[in-house]
Amino acid sequence: ITASGGMMFWPTDFTIENYVYVLKYPNVWQAYKNTVFITVMGTSLSLVMTTLGGYSLSKRNLPLRMPMTLLILITMFVGGGLIPNYLNLKNLGFLNTLWVMIIPDTISTGNLLLMRNFFLAMPQDLKDSAYIDGANDFVILYRIYIPVSKATMAVIILFYVVSQWNSWFPAMIYLRDSKKWPLQMILREILINDAAGG
Question: Contact 76/109 with Cβ under 8 angstroms?
């Protein structure tokens, strides 16, 4: 910036050497595949579980609905800790598998509460009339609630996709096999090697 006399909009020397370097790096294509799998499976599973959880917590006649919501809300502020999580995932057999990137973070508390609040805002008369017509909870969720909540679901999908795609910390802690690393771990390794002069 100093040499050019200020900010420049166009690069002085166009090059694609960085792209070539990254695309030739070992395991980068496998990391792409891993990241796509983690993102697609994680987002799909998260959306299903968040929708079911949000619908369940939005039922006004659900016993202990408010204490359950409060317990879920507490998890936004208090975590279990890294070592207990590690031991738990080890005992469940998730270590060094791609599922360790998906299952532990399946439901985001913020997204669950967002979906719950959207479903709570739906008119109760709509649900009552569906019950009178013989619909059960799954029919009401699938035929009434989901079609009108497409905008909310799109936002939640966006949150989950970005979160899954950018996730690297769980891979650093739980994955030892570099062939199972997501793309973000490979890019992190490239930066570390480049900074170290390797």
Answer: yes
Residue among 53, 150, 45, 148 at smallest CA distance from 103: 45
Rounded Cα distance between 89 and 105, Å, is 12
Which secondary-structure segment (H or E) carries 19? helix 17-24
- Residue range 92-132, pLDDT digits in tens: 999 999 999 999 989 999 999 999 999 999 888 888 888 89
Which token pair is 19? 């792209």
Q: How far apart are CA 43 and CA 29, in angstroms?
A: 21
Place of tokens 């890294």: 82
Structural Rg of the chain based on CA atoms? 22
Q: What is the 3-state secondary structure (H, E, C) of the chain?
A: CCCCCCCCCCCCCCCCHHHHHHHHCCCHHHHHHHHHHHHHHHHHHHHHHHHHHHHHHHCCCCCCHHHHHHHHHHCCCCCCCHHHHHHHHHHHCCCCCHHHHCCCCCCCHHHHHHHHHHHHCCCHHHHHHHHHCCCCHHHHHHHHHHHHCHHHHHHHHHHHHHHHHHCCHHHHHHCCCHHHCCHHHHHHHHHHHHHCCC
Residues belonging to the chain:
198
Full-model pTM = 0.84
